[in-house]
Write a structure and sequence with these properties.
The complex is a heterodimer of chains A (153) and B (269).
Chain A lengths: L1 E6 L2 E6 L6 H8 L18 E4 L2 E4 L12 E3 L11 H9 L8 H14 L5 H7 L11 H10 L6
Parallel strand pairs in A: 1-5
Antiparallel strand pairs in A: 1-2, 3-4, 3-5
Chain B lengths: L7 E2 L4 H10 L4 E3 L5 H7 L7 E3 L9 E4 L2 E5 L4 H6 L5 H8 L4 H4 L4 H7 L7 H6 L3 E6 L2 E6 H4 E3 L2 E2 L6 E7 L5 E7 L10 E8 L3 E7 L6 E2 L1 H8 L4 H11 L10 H18 L1
The chains are: A alpha+beta (153), B alpha+beta (269).
């Protein structure tokens, strides 16, 4: 089927089977390989993207449900000016191997938009769906807090 | 998996959805897809057609009616977490489903119809004596939650019906929800509990993941209403639940945890 949506503000049209995963369409058809596949069953958050502002696991979204929506991937976050979350991840060592980083950045960006002045606990909650096997999360949470102008904990 | 080009029906109204359901009983009904996509990828479900209920506005409303609260089956966990009038037990359960990315897609109706024994919201509907509205071209019928799950992954839903709303009657009492999993977020329940208790009058002790379908513990409930001590109620709970050993836990652990959840709740009141 033909599916039309916007990806990082650009209108796109893809031809795909209806149950094709948004993750695969992004990586294979649109060559946006910033979105990573981790577990492939919605457990790890590596494939997190935003649809109409809401974070989703792109491995669990069939492409037919993407028709008419606005998708944001890591390529669209800070495309012109580095996003505060990305800058803070760099400054605080919030990224190591990098597989979880795109998803973490999108979850953090959504948290910053949805919650005014999130506490450290709220930041942890917002990132709970993004597994990281390197950092132990401390530096990630520090980075997101710093992006808000808070002191690291 | 190999993805094939199957017909997709995307109704724009509930009436159209019900009509399409009658015309295409073979279609796989999609809501948020958070369970279904895993089954598709594993080849457990192979749709020949798809009926998509995602985003139908009529299914995404929460409103108060004379008989209580009506939850649209298409409400997402995020919707009910943020709605001010959501029942505390429903909010607690929705908050434990996955994490934000799952809560943004997973729907109440999907959780109910997927009928996983470990479905996080299922004991809540039992504890609150909820009724499910099943709609078809022949009309709407209400089925109590207690009669909806008939066996492992089997429900009362007929192939031409859709779950459209959940009615939660206004019930008083102390309420408690508890999910025990491997970690706080993103884990599937080892044991999940919803309880309601009106001292001396009425009690509901409802569990998920301790049997093929979510279940209540009638003997423990009777004892509780009659004034039994927390430890006695907990012992009855442990004898009534019917857990198994599986990838997530053991029967013995689940039995003990089920009793402990109830004992601690009753002791803390």
């Amino acid at each position: 089927m033909k599916v039309q949506f916007t990806c990082n503000g650009q209108p796109v049209e893809v031809e795909a089977a209806p149950t094709a995963r948004l993750l695969d369409v992004l990586r294979e058809d649109l060559r946006h390989t910033g979105t990573k596949e981790g577990c492939g069953e919605g457990e790890c958050g590596a494939c997190t993207v935003r649809i109409d502002g809401k974070t989703v696991m792109s491995c669990l979204v069939p492409i037919f449900q993407v028709h008419g929506t606005a998708v944001q991937t890591i390529e669209g976050l800070g495309a012109e000016v580095v996003h505060p979350v990305q800058a803070a991840m760099l400054a605080y060592g919030g990224a190591q191997c990098g597989i979880c980083t795109p998803g973490l950045c999108l979850s953090a960006a959504a948290c910053l938009e949805e919650v005014s002045h999130p506490s450290r606990e709220q930041i942890r909650l917002a990132l709970a769906g993004n597994l990281c096997r390197c950092t132990g999360y401390q530096k990630v949470v520090d980075a997101v807090a710093a992006a808000l102008g808070q002191e690291p904990g | 998996m190999s993805h094939v080009d199957v017909p997709v029906y995307r109704p724009r109204s509930l009436d159209e959805a019900v009509r399409l359901r009658a015309e295409h009983p073979e279609a796989t009904v999609f809501a948020g897809g958070t369970d279904l996509m895993v089954y598709l990828e594993a080849g457990i479900v192979r749709p020949v057609a798809i009926l998509d209920l995602w985003g139908l506005p009529e299914l995404r409303r929460l409103r108060s009616v004379t008989g209580g609260q009506l939850y649209g089956a298409g409400l997402t966990c995020t919707d009910v977490i943020h709605a001010p009038s959501t029942h505390p037990l429903v909010r607690d359960a929705a908050s434990t489903v996955g994490a934000a990315q799952i809560q943004n897609r997973a729907t109440l109706g999907g959780n109910i119809c997927n009928s996983s024994p470990a479905g996080d919201t299922l004991p809540v509907w039992l504890a609150l004596r909820a009724e499910f509205e099943l709609m078809s071209v022949h009309g709407t019928r209400r089925v109590p939650a207690a009669h909806f799950w008939r066996g492992y992954k089997q429900t009362e839903l007929r192939p031409y019906e859709l779950l459209v709303r959940i009615l939660v009657p206004p019930l008083a009492g102390h309420m408690h929800f508890r999910k025990v999993g491997t970690r706080m977020a993103q884990s599937i329940s080892k044991v999940v509990f919803a309880g309601r208790y009106v001292p001396g009058v009425d009690a509901a002790l409802a569990f998920g993941a301790v049997g093929p379908v979510p279940m209540r513990c009638p003997a423990a409930e009777r004892a509780l209403v009659a004034g039994a001590r927390p430890a006695e109620v907990a012992a009855l709970v442990e004898s009534e639940v019917t857990p198994i050993d599986d990838v997530r836990s053991t029967a013995a652990y689940r039995r003990k945890v089920a009793g402990n959840i109830v004992r601690r709740w009753l002791e803390s009141r």
